Amino acid sequence: MTTKIYLVRHAEAEGNLFRVAHGQYDSVITPQGYRQLAYLRDRFQNEKLDAVYGSDLTRTHTTASALYVPRGLPFRPLPLLREIRLGVWEQMTWGEIQRMDKRMYVDFNKRPDLWRAEGAETFAQVRDRVLAGIRQIAAENPGGTVAAASHGAALRTLLGTLQGMSLEEIGGTGHGDNTAVSLLEADGDHIRVVFRDDASHLPAEVSTFRRQSWHKDDAATEPGLWFRTGREDERGKAAQALLDEDVVGKISMEVEPDALRVTEYEMVPALRGQRYGVQLLGQAVQYARMRGKERLVLSCPEELKGYFRKYGFAPAGEELVMDLRRVVREIPETGA
Prior knowledge:
This protein is α/β, with parallel strands linked by helices. It has helices spanning 14-18, 31-43, 58-68, 94-100, 102-110, 123-140, 152-162, 167-170, 277-290, 305-310, and strands at 3-9, 51-54, 75-77, 145-150, 181-187, 190-198, 226-233, 236-243, 246-256, 259-267, 295-298, 313-316, 319-323. It is globular.
């Protein structure tokens, strides 16, 4: 009996947006990610699903909610579907990783058979783990149609393996956009890939990849920022943003009883509008989570409020506030 398994990469999460390495760090979906989920839900509206699985991380649970909630199905968490464990790379910016070890950064994308990081899984371990998860799903749903939400590197490794590729050969394949869909057919021990990495349900304006260039580069490199801490104590933190060795921005944050306040947020004029500023915001979000704060607060001129609202801030009197709680929120209507 053939089992159909739709694989879905999670919607845009904070690591994707802020250009931070999140493997098994439990990040959440961005406002753009929720817009992607509206289109994912619509894509599957006429598809019968018998079960919906996902890794046990928040970003995949949220993604799976676009499929299991409309059908009244339970969510079936499966840790075997988790992203690769990145060890010491977790929560480093991709710009910092490139600066620290450019060769190993390139290997992560282009030679997964060679990649190693302290405390991390190997890609061979990820391959075996995720494949075991898919076999478990197929065994639990003989003849059924199911969906499973997982992660970029994990799915790339799995799909290449099922297409008969070695880890070295997988390094020459592409990456799936956020909410990209692949389809497997499992019949006994045989699993074949019907199609992979299809994001045709996403309009260009909500695609993560349309706003990024790293996945188009032969070495998968990107001009990412790294950060140098200038001050960090019980009162807060200040950091400089650097591109190569040039200081291009700065951010300061102060700890309040129930929130983290951004008191300085600046990018050099020449780099504004090139998606570097959002990496500054990522530093504030990560620091707020590290300090256990559920809100990020800032004040800014009226003409900048639209910029911050795009990334999840909402008006609260004269200030803007970002809710950092890890909750599965309601998915908007298509195009909202």
